[in-house]
Amino acid sequence: MNKRIIKVISIVLLLVILLVGYYFLNSKYNFGIPCIFYKITGYKCPGCGITRALFSILNGNIKEAFKYNKLLFIVTPFLIIYFIYKSYIYILDKKESKIINKIIRYSSYTLVIISIIYAILRNI
């Protein structure tokens, strides 16, 4: 098996293990990561509620997850597509497409703008 495939699979498995491990730590010991932005300002940042949303998804409760953080449902598909694209390029050792890189760049700008708008709207 190609060493690059093994490396990508290892990264995915590590991320899954960390998420599941954190889920069990949080559920057993109520070990959560506080939002520093919220503690300082009293306003919710675009990421507030992502941990609870992920845990709700792990429990199969999509509706509750959507209530915790709607932005997660916008950003996640882009992150998954980006990871798949980068993994494909890495595994097959291909040259990156200039057009796709331009799309990724403008998508990133768009997601930042959406995140800022989301942060403002959720605090009004």
Give a written overview of the molecule.
This protein has 124 residues and is an all-alpha fold. Helix content is 77%, strand content 0%. The protein contains six helices and no strands. The longest helix has 27 residues, at 3-29. It is globular, with a radius of gyration of 17 Å. The model has no long low-confidence stretch (mean pLDDT 91).
Label this structure with key terms.
124 residues
What does this entry show, briefly?
With 124 residues, the protein is an all-alpha fold. Helices cover 77% and strands 0% of the residues.
Give the tally of β-strands.
Answer: 0
Task: Compute the CA-based radius of gyration.
Answer: 17 Å
Tell me the distance between the termini.
53 Å
Number of continuous helical runs: 6
> How does the overall form come out from the CA principal axes?
globular
Give the low-confidence spans: none
Mean pLDDT comes to 91
Layout: helices, strands, pairs:
Layout: H1 3-29, H2 36-41, H3 50-58, H4 62-68, H5 71-92, H6 98-122
